[in-house]
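Q: what sequence does this backbone want?
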């Protein structure tokens, strides 16, 4: 859909959705169905977080629970793959002719309800302005890692995202963490020839690890195929070693690469800069109306995992995909038909 354009780089819309993940796309679809003009803007590609998931990842859920826009997700597998999901969301965006602006990070946002201005820079370096009556923030959390804040974490050998095991064949690899992503990475790396050590501050593999993964990684540890240090913290990372604080004292291990699978968090600085309040020092849940998902800042709505603050395990695609419906219903009430742009 072509947007109304006041000049080469200035666009006028009813709604701007910041984020083009599954929840952002669902919000765009529901707003468009209401008769509003809408665009989804993302600093990465379409469903950028899913693209950055491990290459061989399989979802923990069934296809129908990933559906948006009433478009069936057909898969021959009980649990769909990352590749199938990428294709599905591309097809949904095409079906609804969503205006998705990829590789266009938001620089700043000004204005207030019914008169917001979103400033961006596109992939060619051109500055753009989006004038919008309402904003929906669906920015997710996957691109902001939880750092462990130890010396050496900034070395190139330390990664907070795992993609595939092949480059680490025959190398000493440490996986920090004890939840699903850490367990999956450790298993894949071991099965593809890496010498794997897991380090976790807890007493064992997390009880929340999926039922078919938990016994697998625990059996590998029991058999000595994957080394594991529990109740342990990383003290320092160097080019050739990692120093640990274990219950038995300091341990230094030879190391080539580190995967710090310690989770991710929403961009709280961005939310606070817009005036959105956070409740609780630990949870940092943004203040929203639970019925409409409008924040304490009039005209700015939140959708997806950012609604849960630090409790990122509360919202997934399966339930975040419905946020757009609640938001669109409120938009329909507040933007009466005669006030909606043609």
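A:
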């Amino acid at each position: 859909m072509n947007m109304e354009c006041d000049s080469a780089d200035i666009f006028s819309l009813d709604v701007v959705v910041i984020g083009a993940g599954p929840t952002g796309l669902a919000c765009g679809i529901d707003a468009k169905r209401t008769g509003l003009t809408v665009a989804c803007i993302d600093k990465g590609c379409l469903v950028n977080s899913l693209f950055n998931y491990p290459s061989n990842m399989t979802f923990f859920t069934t296809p129908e629970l990933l559906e948006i826009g009433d478009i069936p997700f057909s898969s021959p597998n009980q649990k769909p793959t990352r590749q199938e999901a990428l294709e599905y969301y591309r097809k949904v965006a095409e079906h609804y002719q969503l205006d998705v602006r990829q590789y266009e990070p938001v620089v700043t946002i000004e204005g207030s309800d019914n008169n917001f201005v979103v400033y961006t820079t596109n992939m060619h370096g051109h500055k753009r302005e989006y004038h919008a009556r309402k904003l929906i923030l669906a920015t997710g959390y996957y691109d902001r890692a939880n750092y462990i804040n130890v010396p050496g974490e900034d070395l190139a050998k330390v990664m907070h995202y795992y993609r595939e095991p092949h480059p680490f064949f025959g190398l000493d690899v440490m996986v920090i963490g004890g939840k699903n992503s850490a367990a999956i990475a450790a298993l894949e790396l071991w099965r593809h020839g890496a010498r794997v050590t897991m380090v976790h501050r807890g007493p064992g593999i997390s009880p929340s690890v999926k039922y078919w993964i938990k016994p697998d990684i625990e059996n590998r540890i029991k058999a000595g195929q994957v080394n594991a240090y529990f109740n342990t913290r990383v003290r320092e990372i160097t080019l050739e070693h990692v120093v640990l604080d274990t219950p038995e004292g300091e341990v230094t291990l030879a190391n080539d690469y580190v995967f710090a699978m310690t989770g991710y968090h929403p961009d709280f600085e961005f939310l606070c800069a817009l005036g959105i309040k956070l409740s609780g020092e630990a949870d940092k849940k943004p203040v929203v109306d639970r019925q409409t998902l409008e924040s304490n800042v009039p005209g700015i709505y939140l959708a997806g995992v950012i609604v849960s603050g630090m409790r990122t395990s509360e919202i997934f695609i399966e339930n975040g995909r419905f946020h757009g419906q609640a938001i669109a219903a409120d938009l329909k009430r507040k933007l009466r038909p005669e006030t909606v742009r043609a």
